[in-house]
């Protein structure tokens, strides 16, 4: 295959894409970022990408873990508790989150879903319209700012690739799982669009785990002329019910894995969410001597949650989140050497009007215990440049400044004024070298920094005093990478990365003993994270392909003393140090396919003391399907799958440093699903 026959374009900040994501040998792979457009083999950063075929082919399309299992360095938990949300950890960043996402930047269609204070939710990501999911495996604060220990970017369709197509998909399965999806895309002259709707109802494996969710995602693109375009984005989430079954002790797990935790059914624990996102993106490829890109966006989120304990356990908030950014890109020569750069600015603000209400032991709501307005504002400026020292050697350098102001205005004065504010001024930098020693083979190295402020919930004072805990500080990291990637003409590709991350003031969760399960945070001194990430793929022939992804890591406390206990050289809780995923795919004529996946998750600990061990386990998933042509224009796809094929007992989530030994959220055993999709 000659280079001029295939070009793959990916949109994200920093880019390294294993060939296993594309199975293209000898092709020109270009990565077009919100930063700098590069060829793959000029990019000095670890990254993985998943195409729409892998996301959708025979999958139930419920959670990110379905498609990210083949990405090394990433670990996902909490796939089955929709109230707490899926947890994402990349090289350990994000592992501390008891709910939602921390430490990892989540971007959807260019809009940062990670808020200025560092928290994010994944419940509004529409996998039915996703064209690509990309993961930066390592700190990326130089481009994304706060909480960018890694990046997950999702790009949805805008109607240009699959124009003029409508599909209806129905899926059902174990534990009363049912999902109905509708998708329509089209183009007319300079206009293109994609509209996606889905409805989910699911009782879940455990008691008190039912979910009902409706999602709408759309894009409308106007190609104003050859160089300029405007794209409008609308995302609507209606999640009237996501119940929370809570965590169990080891004894409760042995007694009945499906039972709900203490107080959950009595208090009807769970959450309800109503969210709207709108965005507008502008692109001008001939703005003077360079290119100009800009976007504005707004998010409104109304949230109600009942936690599984008596006391101040009812949370309600109304959130307004808005932002704008712009960047300019240009290429020229410096001393006869090609140079390209990007420079940008960003402004974001988050306003949470939040209250807490007392829940009695008997299950009755009582009076307010907190009423406050939380405001986080971030102002940022960044730049990055690539200098081609030779045709094969590229030097990349970047820098960023972030000012983040966090303010709590207390409006509940019965316990005195507990207002407070903190301001952080952070510099981030990166430097990398990429050497393309053969056309399809590269070696790269980089060093980068990242920072992560505590979120508003992580600033809570365990003493009961409000405001922002003055003893909690941002954690900072220094990341080193050395990598190789390439592809051979006989259908084999590889990606190998060595990483070393030093983290100062690691943020660690803990819970106080007693009926209150509320989580607090403390800085745990310094930690080291180091390891190897490797992927390989082999296109055996036109029908068979094998892929493997291995992570071998060491996550260790270097310095950490708490309550008179020395945790020096203990492992970080909640993180397996071995992950190994394999995928064998068979693709027949006419759209027939079978995919077998296996995944090994190594042992981990649930607490800082490393006294509660969670054993390792193997999982296997099997799925397959076929495509039938009905007339000239109708396509009917049938598919089915079995998850946890061997019915292995394991945990969907492990709660770190949990009180009263309630560490465990059991995962479902063997489950099945099947579906039909009609396209016309």
Walkthrough of the structure:
Pfam families: Plug (PF07715), TonB_dep_Rec_b-barrel (PF00593). Keywords: Cell outer membrane, Ion transport, Iron, Iron transport, Membrane, Receptor, Signal, TonB box, Transmembrane, Transmembrane beta strand, Transport. Residues 40-151 form the TonB-dependent receptor plug domain. The protein has 680 residues and is mainly beta. It has five helices and 42 strands. The strands form nine sheets. The protein has a 22-stranded antiparallel barrel. A five-stranded mixed beta sheet has the order 4-11-12-8-9.
The largest β sheet comes out as: 22 strands, antiparallel, barrel
The outline comes out as globular
Radius of gyration: 24 Å
Helix content: under 10%
Total of DSSP H or I helical runs spanning 4+ residues: 5
Average pLDDT, all residues: 90
How much β-strand is present in the residues?
A: over 45%
Uncertain ranges? 1-26
Itemize the secondary structure elements and their pairings.
Blueprint: E1 7-11, E2 28-32, E3 37-39, E4 47-51, H1 52-56, H2 65-68, E5 74-77, E6 87-90, E7 101-102, E8 105-108, E9 111-112, E10 119-120, E11 130-136, H3 141-144, E12 151-156, E13 165-173, E14 177-188, E15 191-202, E16 211-223, E17 228-243, H4 250-255, H5 264-267, E18 270-287, E19 290-306, E20 311-334, E21 337-359, E22 365-388, E23 393-410, E24 420-438, E25 441-452, E26 475-487, E27 492-504, E28 507-511, E29 519-523, E30 526-539, E31 544-559, E32 561-562, E33 565-566, E34 578-587, E35 593-601, E36 604-605, E37 613-614, E38 617-630, E39 634-643, E40 651-654, E41 664-666, E42 671-679
Parallel strand pairs: 1-2, 8-12
Antiparallel strand pairs: 2-3, 4-11, 5-6, 7-10, 8-9, 11-12, 13-14, 13-42, 14-15, 15-16, 16-17, 17-18, 18-19, 19-20, 20-21, 21-22, 22-23, 23-24, 24-25, 25-26, 26-27, 27-30, 28-29, 30-31, 31-34, 32-33, 34-35, 35-38, 36-37, 38-39, 39-42, 40-41
């Amino acid at each position: 295959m000659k280079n001029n026959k295939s070009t793959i374009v990916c949109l994200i900040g920093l880019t390294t894409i294993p060939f296993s994501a594309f199975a293209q040998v000898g092709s020109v792979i270009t990565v077009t970022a919100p930063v700098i457009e590069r060829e793959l083999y000029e990019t000095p950063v670890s990254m993985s990408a998943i195409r729409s075929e892998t996301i959708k082919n025979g999958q139930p399309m419920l959670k990110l873990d379905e498609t990210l299992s083949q990405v090394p360095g990433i670990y996902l938990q909490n796939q089955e508790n929709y109230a707490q949300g899926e947890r994402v950890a990349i090289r350990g960043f994000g592992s501390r989150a008891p709910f939602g996402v921390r430490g990892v930047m989540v971007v959807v269609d260019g809009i940062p879903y990670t808020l200025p204070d560092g928290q994010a939710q994944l419940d509004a990501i529409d996998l039915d319209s996703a064209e690509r999911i990309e993961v930066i495996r390592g700190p990326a604060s130089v481009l994304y700012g706060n909480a960018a220990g890694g990046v997950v970017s999702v790009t949805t369709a805008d109607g240009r690739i699959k124009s003029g197509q409508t599909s209806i998909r129905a899926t059902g399965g174990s534990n009363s799982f049912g999902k109905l999806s509708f998708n329509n895309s089209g183009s007319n002259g300079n206009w293109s669009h994609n509209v996606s709707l889905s409805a989910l109802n699911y009782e879940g494996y455990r008691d008190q785990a039912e979910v009902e969710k409706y999602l709408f995602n759309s894009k409308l693109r106007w190609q104003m002329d050859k160089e300029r375009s405007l794209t409008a984005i609308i995302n609507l989430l209606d999640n009237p019910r996501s119940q929370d079954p809570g965590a169990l002790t080891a004894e409760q797990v042995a007694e009945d894995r499906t039972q709900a935790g203490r107080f959950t059914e009595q208090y009807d624990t769970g959450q309800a969410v109503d969210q709207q996102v709108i965005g507008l993106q502008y692109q001008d490829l001939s703005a003077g001597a360079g290119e100009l890109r800009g976007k504005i966006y707004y998010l409104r989120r109304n949230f109600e949650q009942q936690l599984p304990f008596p006391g101040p356990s009812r949370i309600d908030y109304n959130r307004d989140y808005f932002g704008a950014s712009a960047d300019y890109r240009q290429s020229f020569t410096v001393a006869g050497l090609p140079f390209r750069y990007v420079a940008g600015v960003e402004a974001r603000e988050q306003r949470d009007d939040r209250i807490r209400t007392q829940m009695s032991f008997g299950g009755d709501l009582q009076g307010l215990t907190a009423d406050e307005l939380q405001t986080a504002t971030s102002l940022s400026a960044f730049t990055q440049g690539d200098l081609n020292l030779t045709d094969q050697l590229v030097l990349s350098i970047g820098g960023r400044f972030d000012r983040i102001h966090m303010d709590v205005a207390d409006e509940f004065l019965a316990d005195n004024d507990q207002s407070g504010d903190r301001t952080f001024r952070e510099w981030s930098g990166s430097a990398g070298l990429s050497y393309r020693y053969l056309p399809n083979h590269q070696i790269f190295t980089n060093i980068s920094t990242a920072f992560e402020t505590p979120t508003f919930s992580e600033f809570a004072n365990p003493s009961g005093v409000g405001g922002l805990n003055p003893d909690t500080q941002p954690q900072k990291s220094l990341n080193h990478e050395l990598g190789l990637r390439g592809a051979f003409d006989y259908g084999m590709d590889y990606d190998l990365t060595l990483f070393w991350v030093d983290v100062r003031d690691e943020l660690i969760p803990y819970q106080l003993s007693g009926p209150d399960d509320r989580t607090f945070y403390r800085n745990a001194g310094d930690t080291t994270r180091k390891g190897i990430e490797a992927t390989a793929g082999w296109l055996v022939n036109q029908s068979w392909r094998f892929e493997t992804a291995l992570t071998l890591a060491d996550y260790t406390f270097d310095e950490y003393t708490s309550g008179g206990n020395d945790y020096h050289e203990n492992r970080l809780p909640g993180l397996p140090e071995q992950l190994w995923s394999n995928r064998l795919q068979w693709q027949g004529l006419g759209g027939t396919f079978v995919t077998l996946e296996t995944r090994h998750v190594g042992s981990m600990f649930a607490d800082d003391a490393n006294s509660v061990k969670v054993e390792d386990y193997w999982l296997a998933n099997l799925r397959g399907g076929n495509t039938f042509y009905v007339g000239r224009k109708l396509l009917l796809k049938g598919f089915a799958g079995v998850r946890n094929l061997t019915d292995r007992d394991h945990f969907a989530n492990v709660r770190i440093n949990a009180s009263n030994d309630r560490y465990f959220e059991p995962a479902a055993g063997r489950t099945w699903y099947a579906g039909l999709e009609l396209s016309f």
